[in-house]
Amino acid sequence: xxxxxxxxFITQNNFDVQSARACFYVMDAVYSAYADSEKIxxxxxxxxxxxxxxxxLQLFYQILPKxxxxxxxxxxxxxxxxxxxxxxxxxxxxxxxxxxxxxLFNQYYNENELNxxxxxxxxxxxxxxxxxxxxxxxxxxxxxxxxxxxxxxxxQKRHNLNYEKAKEIINELSHPDELTFFNQERxxxxxxxxxxxxxxxxxxxxEYLKKFFWIGTDFYQAKLITEKSLIEDAIREIKTKGEKxxxxxxxxxxxxxxxxxxxxxxxxxxxxxxxxxxxxxxFCEKIVSWFDLRKFIYMGHFYHIFAMLKEIAKRHKIDxxxxxxxxxxxxxxxxxxxxxxxxxxxxxxxxxxxxxxNYGNINKKNYIYGKEGKKLFDIIAKKFLSNFVSxxxxxxxxxxxxxxxxxxxxxxxxxxxxxxxILVTSMTRIEFVPLMRNAKAIITNEGGMACHAAIxxxxxxxxxxxxxxxxxxxxxxxxxxxxxxxxxxxxxxxx
Length: 495
What we know:
20 helices, 8-stranded mixed β-sheet, 5-stranded antiparallel β-sheet, Glucose Oxidase, domain 1
């Protein structure tokens, strides 16, 4: 695409925009796959865009055309209606690629001695599978909005309900019966806290490190969780909360899941579900569980990939921060021939880069740097930077209006958040969960019933409004707001 074609495309389309701290390499790998996802899903999904800016170290904006997201999610649902095995086949294909990637990582770590040739072999193989994994994984970007836009209205009509009541019932009935991965992690951690100084602590530590070794990783770099750091975190938690509160939290998680299961039973007893209802609910359950599993898997993959990048940076005497601006192909060239990306090009990427990816052009991407790229991003930004903040109620509260002071969090590792504040962010991820537990309420830019913020807030019983698109741009730290938990409207009452 030339510059005019790019400009016309972003002017004529609406986009789903999300942001987080990330490195150029990961975005390059993921969006190359997204642009080519038509090979798996038979649904057009390009061009797509991401924008990387130096704000907050490395802040990326994921910019996906809404029409493509909707078209794909509608197709997934339509294919399921024709034959439920279509969805099962997609999930099985995705998990099959996961097993192959995991096997390669295991082989890599079991190598007796690493050299450039061996690292290149594994890195190339993993990247090819990583590319395939994200072609499957693009379906998760819809965050289950198909449930809100198609399934809830149909259920509403069949049972003569208002939309909000129908949505509440679908939310309850499609929530996974088993605890989500973030709660599984929390239970294990709390058990470690309560086992400090006891003989059974080692079994909990071993299980934790096996399942959740990646828990501190984000989209930029890996954080190694060791037995020592885990025990230190547990001791700190005990000192901060005390044994009584930790036991209460552990009981609340278990009781909360029991209450949800009991509530499901009551709903099913009060409403006569027909065959179409049951089919739709099964679709919702599979989608919600798939998206939860998807995030669990890719954070583990990121951990391993970033660990490899750290090793590559060390061997080639390149600062990790600088290497994070390499593309997939450029890292392979570095391993193969020692070819480094020029300092001038890396400096341009550090300044800001607007990236466009098209179907079938994995090695031909449009990179627009500096002021020209920012102008293009500003065209998109204006579309979601209205002064009105409103979203979808993902988790209700007992009160119709929730009042509180907001705190904008982009990087939960480096930014301070006080208990009782309203957490405002673009999208929540695993590393946000500790903050979410202490939040009075949650507001996000992203939306969809199956998104991380929706699932976690419901399990924690914390009020949440999601899918505002512009909350992080309009709201400022310290703003006092009122959240209407019926309409999803958010109003600033005092700056």
